[in-house]
């Protein structure tokens, strides 16, 4: 009988801290539902004290999710913990995850607390959290650079105070596998009450070792791994859920654990997260990259045809490839459209909203013969996610580009309800469109990132554009999708401007 490896997904919290990857409450809910469908054990839904929006997002997820535990992060102070406790109150199973820094450099420079004060604060934090739930997790922030004696001391104290999960994060992604695994083993051996808790790891990927470090720790006693879909997360990201789950499953001979994850939901989850955040998945990404199961070379293909196991260690269908079937077309009716949206977990608030969305679907179906789930996701994101009231809206566009001539864009925008026209030249039509927008919007935003990705295959595929803008030290990503990539680009630019216009400051804890 194998031990259970608890899969703790933090796409909605740590993943959301990727630059520009902020998600709306509805987007978070959809991802949470997909995580639940995938049978993830714990969903870290957010950091409730970060803002009212974060609080509402955690609470909505706590209300909606029945099978998975719903968790909120909280710093080890009373205010954060009470916000987290209130946010998870509706959950069938709720967890509070509290953390405090334990490395000498963080205690001294950031917290300005002595080690004694840090232990005392951590114990108090567990006490406040237990007023709301028995399921309390404690993280020693920057554990990877903390002194082992101090970790033993603080862990013993918080376990006595009632913590049920002890998380050892490699916050800055500094560890290497053998050494990190040894640290976890030493902690389990030396903390006197270590058998009363589940040991957890949370590894960052700065050296590309997040998955390797996590798996090495599983071999020495960790029974929870914190991870994200597509490895999303701060800087180089977190351990990727799909790699952890498939490594444990494929090498069952090596790992003494099994997960409860329905692996056929992995690729749909990956696509959803990629679309919602605008972070494309690299083609050679393990498990979920477009090439992950493409055996290109002739020798391999021959081998695979003769006997699959010659070259394939996993089956594409086991992780959900091929589930992307043709769903709708030009002749699909309103009911089929509504039913498919429901299956995708997309909420339609009113008949009027459905009519608008259906009209846009028909318009897309005129230009694109086959409509896939990804197209619907993009369509509905354009439809629903733009923050209301929209400050900037695209009314119409005209582009001209011809060999040997300077590209020109003419654009009509609605800015705060008033229509404005502009015309600009650029080095290409996209450049011209952005310049035209700035001519009238005059936001002074700086373009940090521009990327185009085809949502599905075929030349009639929708281009999905991500635009990252910075203004006054704030960074926002905007997304837009259209079969015309210049229109998609303009939409993405305006989406980012709208987010910059309404967005509030958020706290981003480094755990
Ligand atoms: Zn983290």
From TrEMBL:
It comes from the Bacteria. Residues 393-511 are annotated as: Regulatory domain. One of its GO terms (molecular function) is 2-isopropylmalate synthase activity. It comes from Thauera aminoaromatica S2. This is 2-isopropylmalate synthase. Its EC number is 2.3.3.13. Homodimer. Catalyzes the condensation of the acetyl group of acetyl-CoA with 3-methyl-2-oxobutanoate (2-ketoisovalerate) to form 3-carboxy-3-hydroxy-4-methylpentanoate (2-isopropylmalate).
């Amino acid at each position: 009988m194998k031990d259970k490896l608890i899969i703790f997904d933090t796409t909605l919290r740590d993943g959301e801290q990727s630059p520009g990857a902020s998600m709306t409450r509805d987007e978070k809910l959809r991802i949470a539902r997909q995580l639940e469908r995938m049978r993830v054990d714990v969903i870290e839904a957010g950091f409730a004290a970060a803002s009212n929006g974060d609080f509402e997002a955690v609470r909505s997820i706590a209300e909606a999710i029945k099978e998975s535990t719903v968790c909120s992060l909280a710093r080890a102070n009373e205010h954060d913990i009470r916000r987290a406790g209130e946010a998870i109150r509706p959950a069938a199973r709720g967890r509070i995850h509290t953390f405090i820094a334990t490395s000498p450099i963080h205690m001294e420079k950031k917290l300005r607390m002595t080690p004694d004060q840090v232990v005392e604060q951590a114990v108090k934090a567990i006490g406040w959290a237990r007023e709301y739930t028995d399921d309390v997790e404690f993280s020693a922030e920057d554990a990877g650079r903390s002194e082992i004696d101090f970790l033993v001391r603080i862990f013993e104290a918080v376990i006595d105070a009632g913590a049920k999960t002890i998380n050892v994060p490699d916050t800055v992604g500094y560890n290497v596998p053998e050494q990190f695994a040894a640290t976890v083993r030493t902690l389990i051996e030396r903390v006197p009450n270590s058998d009363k808790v589940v040991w957890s790891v949370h590894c960052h990927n700065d050296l590309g070792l997040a998955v390797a470090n996590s798996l090495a720790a599983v071999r020495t006693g960790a029974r929870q791994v914190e991870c994200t879909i597509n490895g999303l997360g701060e800087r180089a990201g977190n351990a990727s859920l799909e790699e952890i789950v498939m490594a444990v499953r494929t090498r069952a001979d090596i790992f003494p654990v099994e997960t409860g994850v329905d692996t056929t939901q992995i690729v749909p989850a990956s696509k959803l997260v990629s679309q919602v955040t605008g972070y494309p998945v690299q083609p050679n990404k393990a498990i979920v990259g477009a090439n992950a199961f493409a055996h290109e070379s002739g020798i391999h293909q021959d081998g695979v045809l003769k006997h699959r196991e010659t070259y394939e260690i996993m089956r594409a269908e086991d992780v959900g490839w091929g589930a992307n079937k043709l769903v709708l077309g030009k002749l699909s009716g309103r009911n089929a459209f509504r039913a498919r949206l429901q299956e995708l977990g997309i909420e339609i608030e009113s008949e009027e909203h459905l009519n608008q969305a259906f009209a846009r679907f028909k318009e897309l179906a005129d230009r694109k013969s086959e409509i896939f789930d990804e197209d619907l996701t993009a369509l509905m994101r354009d439809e629903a996610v733009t923050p209301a009231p929209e400050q900037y809206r695209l009314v119409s566009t005209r582009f001209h580009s011809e060999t040997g001539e300077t590209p020109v864009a003419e654009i009509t925008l609605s800015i705060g309800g008033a229509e404005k026209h502009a015309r600009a030249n650029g080095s290409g039509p996209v450049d011209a469109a952005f310049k035209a927008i700035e001519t009238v919007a005059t936001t002074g935003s700086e373009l940090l990132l521009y990327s185009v990705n085809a949502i599905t295959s075929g030349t009639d595929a929708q281009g999905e554009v991500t635009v990252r803008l910075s203004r006054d030290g704030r960074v926002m990503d905007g997304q837009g999708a259209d079969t015309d990539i210049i229109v998609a680009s303009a939409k993405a630019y305006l989406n980012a401007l709208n987010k910059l216009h309404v967005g509030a400051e958020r706290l981003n804890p480094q755990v």
